[in-house]
Amino acid sequence: MTLEIAIFLSMNGKAKEAIDFYIRNLSAKKLMIVTYEDMARRDNSFEITSKNKNHISHSVLQIGKTKLMIAEDTMNPSKRYNIGNNTSLCIQSANLEEIQRFYSNLISDERVKIITPLGKNAFSEAYGIIEDPFGIQIQLMYDERLK
Question: Most buried of 3, 61, 114, 133, CB within 10 angstroms?
Fold first, then answer.
């Protein structure tokens, strides 16, 4: 499989609690957990404090056949956390051209807002975030692990 869509939840500082809740109550399996401290090792611009070092930068759980991603922050850090902006879709593909095509198609609609332009970062060769005309935030990410 080279393409998948996952549910992404932003938990406003309660990611660890949410992860434990889903493991305990839904038999979720932990596939990956990355803390802020882990991210700082990959990206020296990532700011670590004694309060946030154990916060969850990114995690992936599996519940049945569905992947659930959980982190602390919303997709658009300039907006205050509210129930409603704490959920997004994450479209991942092992095909870089596919992610680039999806991104280009989406931003060709003048109603789409670019939150993070598609580009390389500490965890992907191509990662970007848009908000569609209906207020849904969509992450697009190239992930070679899906090959």
Answer: 61
- 69-125: per-residue pLDDT in tens? 999 887 777 777 777 677 888 999 999 999 999 999 999 999 899 999 999 998 899
Structure-block tokens of residue 88: 């997004």
- Strands in 66-71's sheet, in edge-to-edge order, are 29-35, 56-63, 66-71, 3-10, 87-93, 137-142, 127-131, 113-119
Q: What is the identity of the amino acid at 125? A: E
SS3 of residue 37 by DSSP: helix
CB 43 within 8 A of CB 122: yes
Can you say whether the dihedral through the CA atoms of 147, 144, 14, 81 is positive or negative?
negative
Please give the mean pLDDT across all residues of the chain. 89
3 state SS of 106: helix
